[in-house]
Amino acid sequence: MLTRLAVRSLHEAFERNDWADVEAIYPNIPTSILSHHDTFLIAKLLHTTLRINGSARDAAGQEANQKLLLATDRLVDLYKARVLPPHSGASLHLLSIYKENKEAEKTKELWHWLSIQEGDEYVSQAVYGAAIEALAFAGEPLADLETLFEKALIRFPGNFASYHLSPEAVVPDRGQSAFSKNIPISLLQGIFTARLLNDDWRNAYLAFDVVLRLIPEGIPRRFFELIIAQRPFAEAVQVYQLGILVKALSTDRSSITLLGRAAVAVERVSGQQRAHIAKDAIGILEAEIYARRPLLSTQVSRVINILTHMAWDNKLCDTDAMKLRNFNIAECGSRLIKLCSPYMLGDIGSTLNSMLQLAGKTNHKQLVVEIREVIEELDTWNDVTHRALVSCVGAGGDIDGLKDAWKLLVKRAEQESRELGERDWWCLARAVNSINSPIAVAFATEQLALHNLSPQFQARFQEACQPWPGNGKEIRKPTKITISSEMEVLGEVLDKLEARTRFPDVTDVYRRPDRFSKGTNTLSGESNVAAPATNAQIVYDELTVDPLQPSPDKEAQLSKAGLPFDTLRFIHWKSVNDLLLLAEGCEKAKKAAAEEAIATGTPLKFDKDRESLRLYDELSFPLNLEEYRLRIMELRGRAK
């Protein structure tokens, strides 16, 4: 009777998701009473509790996390002692816990024990997939994991899994949905992860190609997230766009990650590469609207900051063409805000602050006025906004504007009963330095005298206000063609964003054959001047249709993206070709950089994001059909 009550209490604790009660109850229930499913639920709840608690950063949260990891160790000990009935799902959760908490040795020990158990009670193809992924993160050699993958295919053959998971396999009807019944996709995910972590880009992308072929939509988001996290920026952006199209990315985490990388990359590149970053960043906002997610102010602010990096310091623009370029970039920022504002969530103060920086750097005085009016209307003034205004008028060389902006900042500080901080003073110093005028320096000195600051700080401040020798980088004079090309890139992507804001659900933007083209070349086998998709379609048909099988007699089904599945599979295939081309180019560049470092005896310097952006303008597929076919076969490792 007591045992039955304990089991009932255990099940009630499962329903409440109460790990503390589950942990107190389950060790006291005899093995003969617990079911295999109970073991699964125990491991699952522990895993879920750890994931929820894992976001805690304070000391109490970390202490709780350590207790949960100790509970995992106890659970594993009972599992291995056969006190708990076996369940492959429990094995998967336990491996995942150790992987996610970077317990490499415990991962290896648990898998070693699981791998020698007879029968299939403890392991399944999904457990093998989880083990391969966990062992990859634990640093096991890729060759060993490939062997483990082959063993799993032999042990769990499923529905001709070995064939269907091979890069050369074809599906019987490209117009139908999924062909994954009894095919171990989780096993494929495991080896895909191992290859990606070990920089085996070709075979990782071929595994990605396999899952896109088998499941053209409804693909596990882990495939997309890993590429976005691990691969160079140009590749990551394309995979993100593909993930949005097939609705595989259900949160804005990937877009936030990519926009953060874009904001860093734009500081390391120059010229046309910055235009490419801006294009991709605006494309990310468009994709978020397509995914029906609200835009965060921080997301839009990062795109505005990228445009600001594209602009040149106004005082260095000594030709009408250069000044017009700056003006047009500022106008692009203004247009972007107007298009995005209906979709933005919460406070947009940070976005307005970023717009002030852009307007100041480009000396777009009318835009400054407009932004200030919006700030007044929405009452988003704070100390950051005031510093942004000081920086804005300083960058624009407006001495009177600087005086007014600084006095507003001081007034605000007095109203809040706060002392001016170093960030305020250094903001003023940078603004004065930008103006590069004795009048501005005199104003700053006058303001300094009104406050009780240490002599050391005053000396450093006055030094910072003085113009530096050769202050400002010389700008390489751009050609009219270069400026026109940059503005064309921004204009096109903003036109697409505008179309998206008017018709959020329309997928036509993804139908265009140049969807995955970048810069002046195309990476999708197309040509801007030659016949469209014929080459790609011909080679695609050669590689994905079995000539010995009759043509399908069913009409192609429509995917959730609104595209026929045969069209969607073709898009996937071209996308993987693009990724392989970019990855190969990046690998060659890295190898060349390594050889140069060895020859010169210097450390290797290689920025994968910057290099991938450079490749936008250098890579393309051949226009000749025979050459194109050979190039595709080479990239896919099928050339004889």
UniProtKB/TrEMBL annotation:
Domain of life of the native organism: Eukaryota
Protein name (database record): Uncharacterized protein
